[in-house]
Amino acid sequence: MDGATCECGLGSVEVSMAIDGETFDLILRGTELPLSHQFVDVLPANVSVGLSNAWHRLNPTGFMDATIRMSSLEDKHTLNMEIVPKILFISGKEEEMSLELTEGSVIVENTNVFLNDLKFELKEE
Which of 36, 42, 77, 101 has the most Cβ atoms closer than 10 angstroms to its Cβ? Predict the structure, then answer.
């Protein structure tokens, strides 16, 4: 299957998948996808446990672009993600602020997570 597309709110997801015997390859490319309060739960467990309390306390919303690839070849499984949090909205105490990404991304390679030079511009509403 190559190039199946669906819309998600303002965003969209394109999917391609190949299965050949014991080989499996799935690629998802999403743009302008809404961020969920469960976002940290898709990260590897060794990372999501550490970030979970802070993430749920802030309870941010916003939008992201993401490329996710899962593959399996001869019982070797891989997970690679590049997540670009375009904008985060955080509210509390009757105030709202936004964090707009100026550069960087979150990279996941199997169980390793890298916050590659994430820089945001803070805007208070």
Answer: 101
Q: What is the pTM of this model?
A: 0.81
DSSP the chain: -EEEEEEETTEEEEEEEEEETTEEEEEEEEEEEEP-TTGGGGS-HHHHHHHHHHHHHH--EEEEEEEEEEEEETTEEEEEEEEEEEEEEEEETTEEEEEEEEEEEEEEETTEEEEEEEEEEEEE-
Question: Is there a contact between 64 and 73 (Cβ–Cβ < 8 Å)?
Answer: no
Residues in the chain: 125
